[in-house]
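Milestone M4 deliverable, item 7.
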Amino acid sequence: MTTKHFRLALTVSLALTVSSVLASACGSDGSATSTSRVVLSKAEIQRLWDEAAAFADRSITPWPDVEDFIADLAEDATATDPTGNIFNIGREDIIVATRQFAESTNYNYEVTGIYLSVDGAAFDEALPGLEMSTSPDAPVLLAADAYRFRDGKIISDDEWWGSEWLRFHAVGCFAVDGCPALQKTVDRYVAAWSARDPDAIAALYSDDAVFTDSMLGLNAKGLGAIRDLANVRFGSTGDLTIEVLGLYAWTDGPHPPTEADPERGSLIGVTVHHRTTSSSGAVMQEGIITLELGPRSATDMDADPRGLIHKEDVFHEPASLLAAIQP
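Output delivered:
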């Protein structure tokens, strides 16, 4: 897979306004609080949305214009795609890898969704033309990219592959019964958070897991703090439904497991495009969540043997945020 790099300066002044329909903030130590519910102002959200959309038009769709993609990489930037065995560290390594990929491929990017965090952005993408098979039934590769920025420079790029494409091409664990671990992970996650069940939620995460939803000011580290979000993240009352709209995954390399190496190609990450609605059918939140199912270093990532979440990041679909803020 390629690495794509956007020069989007997401400098945010946190103009917080009270909202009665979004999740409560957390304390600075990550514990849940009963303070007023907060969200970025409509003006801030609209500005970030406009910048992300303009940047996508300027820097994603022109591919393979490599020079445009690499123009604003930070010197210490990282690019991560464990499925493709990509762990690039530093601007120069990423430039070399990106140019090599551009020279050997021929395809386009289409942006189908934009999602925001305070210091980054995530994009749903379709990559028509990039296929590993000539079969007429081969699905178009769908991808999700999550980016972080510092002082207008890209400091990280995480790329995820669409689950149906992985199944079709039998990548990693998807070569074995379609990788049932993916659906098991998603089902447990949706059931626990839909029920606001603190014990079931805590059972999803490792002891030192980190949860971040910067657009709503939710930051929690460790099981206790994440458990305390059970009645905070989606509010404390009323039925809610979490609908899965799309799935993306990371596997531990592209090759399937073998008898000699049964852990090869294990599921090590899941990204979920989701929509959460209340019992009345009103949209409470829509966005992308990235779930890392194991510890990650700059050069490697291992599967958690229990399939636990070590890191979760939330990116919000901006229209749903704007609709949720009281006038």
